[in-house]
Amino acid sequence: MDKVKDHFDQIAQSYDTYKSKHRFYYSNLKSLLASLISPHKKVLEIGCGTGDLLGYLRPKYGFGVDISPQMISIAKIKHPRLLFSTKFPKDRFDYVFMSDVIEHLSDPLAIFARASRLIGNKSKFVITMANPKWEPVLMLAEKLHLKMPEGPHNRINFTQLQQLLSNSGFQITSHDYFLLCPIFLPVLTKFINSHLEKHFKAWSFIEYVVAKKS
User: Fold this and answer.
1) What are 85-136's pLDDT values in tens digits?
2) Which CATH architecture has domain 2-213?
3) Which long-range contacts (CB under 8 A, 24 or more apart) does 181-184 make?
4) What digits encode the pLDDT tens for the residues 123-151?
5) Nearest-CA neighbor of 60 among 73, 76, 43, 37?
6) Which among 52, 148, 159, 165 is most buried, taking Cβ atoms within 10 Å?
7) DSSP for 94-163?
């Protein structure tokens, strides 16, 4: 985990710049999360980065946890009404979510166990991740300096995620894909996402699950 922490500490100052270059993707990710997580609730984000996703969801009580102290420092400045820390809280939450994080976890079971202790029977655990089918494209884009450096990571597929959640006491209630074209191309993007995505759903860029305690 030290390599992961060091990586995100190193890119913390440029993290928001990378996100602004891919605002189409992040805007759609925010919209997806807002459709899954109700506003004015108690929300915990695992791997919060600089806190923009959590802030967008308008929680009544929002807490972001991240391995990177540098990310946490920036998040506290950007979103003073929310709480941020490198340590997990002890509160119970209505929603716990993580986006583009699971591939960086050296021990997902340990993190899922933490999440399980922080939610109740009516709470939801939301996970979004890049569809593993896109890994070759993502690695090529990184080599061409077209995306944020990924750092140490290991993509997992849905079967692996399902097993990890089951072993942690979670039951998946929904599983889906979203955003076939994650970049903005005039005319093309709207056509692809509006008309082709339904036919090639499993190739969409974002894969996500919603789970509850079993």
Assistant:
1) 999 999 999 999 999 999 999 999 999 999 999 999 999 999 999 999 999 9
2) 3-Layer(aba) Sandwich (3.40)
3) 181/205, 182/22, 182/24, 182/25, 182/28, 182/206, 183/22, 183/24, 183/25, 184/24
4) 999 999 999 999 999 999 988 888 888 88
5) 43
6) 165
7) EEEEEES-GGG-S-HHHHHHHHHHTEEEEEEEEEEEE-GGGHHHHHHHHHTT-S----S-----HHHHHH
3-state secondary structure of 79: coil
The answer to whether the predicted template modeling score (pTM) of the entire model surpasses 0.90 is yes
- pLDDT of 1 reads 64
User: For the chain, which residues make up each domain, given as ranges?
Assistant: 2-213
What the block records as the tokens of 123 is: 């709470």
Token match 């996100």: residue? 19
End-to-end Cα distance, the chain: 29
CA atoms within 13 Å, Cβ hemisphere of 79: 23
75: tokens are: 């998040």
Instruction: Flag the least confident range among 43-47, 91-95, 142-146, 175-179.
Output: 142-146
